[in-house]
Amino acid sequence: MRLQFIERIKFNSVGMKVFGLYVASMIVIITVMGYLSYDKTAHMMESKIGGMALQNVQQMSKRLDILLEGYEDRSLLVVGNKEIQKQLMGEFSDEKERIQNNSANTAFLSNLVNSRNDMNNIYLLSEKGFSYRYSPKESFPVYNPYAYGHFTEAWYKEIRKADGKPVYFGIVPSLINGPGSDPVFTFGRTQKNLNGRGEIIGVVLYEIDPAEVQEILAEIDYDGSGINVITDDTGNIIGDKDGLLLSGNLGVPFKEEHQGTFSYAIDGEEMLVVYNHLETNHWRLVGMLRNTDLMKEAKDIRWYMLSLGIIFSCIGILLSVIIASTVHRPLQKMTHAMRKARNGDFDIRIKDKREDEFGYLFTHFNQMVAHIKELINELYVQKLLERDLQLKMLGSQINAHFLYNTLDSVHWIARIHKVDDISTMIFGLSKYLRLSLSEGRDEVLISQVVHLIDSYIMIQKVRYQDKFTLYVKADESLMDYKVLKFIFQPIVENAIYHGLERKSGKGRLDIAFIREGDCLKFVVTDDGAGIAPDKLAELKYILRGEQPKEESSFALRNINSQIKIAYGAQYGIEIESSYGEGTKVTMTIPLTKRSPAQQVS
Predict the structure, then answer these.
(1) Tens digit of each residue's pLDDT (9 = 90 or more) over 87-104
(2) How many degrees, rounded to 5, is the angle at CA 277 between CA 275 and CA 281?
(3) Which Pfam families does the record match to this protein (predicted)?
(4) Backbone angles phi, psi at 343, to 5 degrees
C-alpha cells in the first residue's frame, strides 16, 4: 500500500514543484534568519563579555599599579637613608660606630618591613665589598654582612643601567639563590652617594612574597574559564596566580594600543584575549578566556533557535502541502480531461466552476473541445465533398484529353489544306495547354517552363508576324530544378502587349534564365515603348508590398505575392524602364530541391 501511494505521486507535476519550491524557500529563509540571528547574538555576547573582561583587567591593573607604587615608595626610604649609605660605603671611624650603625639600620629595616609584613629579603649590595642581607622570615630578623660577588650578572647591570629608577623582574626564582629557589616578586634600584656627586655605590634588591600579586591575579577567573597573567614587553610571562606559567612566552601578537580585546588561537583553542598596560612600568596585564566556555549561553540560544526552526519548518511543510494541493487538484482535473480529449473523447467537459484563473482555463478548455468537435464534423463533410470533387476533376481530365485530341486533329487538317498559320497556332495552343495544365501540378521543371514560353511565343508570332525578334538564353544547369509554372508567362506577355505592341517598327525581346549562386534570375528585356515615370513609381510602390490606391497591375502584383509567399520576402520582381526606350523586368527566386508548391501550402 505504501509503495502504491509513492508510485501515484508524480514528482514532476506542478503541485510537487510548487511544494518543493515552497519548502526549499522556507527552509532557506529560516536557516538564513536563524544563522544571522545567532551570529548577531553571539557577536553581541562576545562584545559584552569582552567589555566586562576588559573592565576587570583595568581594575586589576589599577590595583597592581597601586601595589607597585607602594613598593617603590618603600624602596625610596631605603635608598634615601644616610645610615644605610654610610654602612654600604664602610666609612666608620671605629668598631663602636659600626656596631651602632648596624643596630640602627636593623631597627629601621625591621620597622619598614613590619609595616606590611610581605618582605622576604632585602639585599644591600655594595660595590665596595660591604654587602648586607636583611631577612624577617627567619627565627628573628637578622641584618648581617653578606658576601656578594655578582657584579657581572645581567640583572645587576640592568638595575645599574636604570640609574636610580626601579627595575621590576616580576615573580621569578631568587636572583641571588639561583633557579632552584622559591619564586619571589623581585625588583631593585641603585643606591647613590647623596653626600657626594651622586655616584652609584651599590644596588638594593627586594624579594617580596608574591602572594598579594597572585591574589589579585586570582580574584577574577571568569567562572573558571580563563586566567590572568602579567607579561613583559617581549611577551614573557612574569606573573600568574599559581606560578605554573612562569618563564613561558605567551606568543600572542599584541597591538600598539594601550588596551584592547581580540580573539586568538592558543594551543589550538580559540581564546578571547583582553589586555591593559600598567602605568608604573612596561608590563601588560592579560586576561584570557575560552570562547567555548564564554559562549555557553549562545549555544543554548542556538539550540533554542534550532528547535524553533524545526517546529516552524514542520508547520511550513504542512501549509505547503495544503497550498500545493490547491494548485495540484485543478491541474489534475485538467490533465485528465486533456488526456480524454487526446484519445478522441470530445464530449468531455470540466464541470468545476471556479472564479479564479483555473475557472478561466476550464471554461476555455470546454469551448475549445466543443469547437474541435465542430471542426471535425466540418472536416468530415469536406472530405466527402473533396472526394466528389476528385471524381469531377477526373471527368475534366477526360474532357482535357478530348480537347487535346480535337486540337491535334484540327492541326493536321490545316496541314493537309496547307493553311500554315492556322496549323502553327493550333499546334502552339495544344502544346501550351498541355504544359500549362500539366496534369494539375503547380510546379514544373525549368526546362518545361522554357518550352511553355516557346509555345506561347509561337502563337504570338503568328499574330504579330515580324513585329519583334526573340532571343532566348537558358543556362543548362538550371533545367532540372522545379519552379512555380504560372509566374513566368505573364511577364513575357506584359513585355509584348505593353512594350513591343506600342512601338512603331520592329522590336527585340530578350528572355534569359541566368544562374547566380543559388538563385535563378529570369530577365525579360524589350526595347518597346517603356513606362512613364509616374506609372513606374506606382509599379515599384506596389512591388514593395504597399496597397495600391486603385486596382491596377494585377498580374505583376499577384506574381510578386506568390514569389514572396513561396520563397520568402527577400525574393520577388524588380523593374527598370526608360520611357520611349524599353523595359527590363528581373525576377529572382531561389534554386531549391524542395517543391515550391509545398512551401506555398
Answers:
(1) 888 777 788 888 888 888
(2) 150
(3) dCache_1, HAMP, HATPase_c, His_kinase
(4) -80, 5
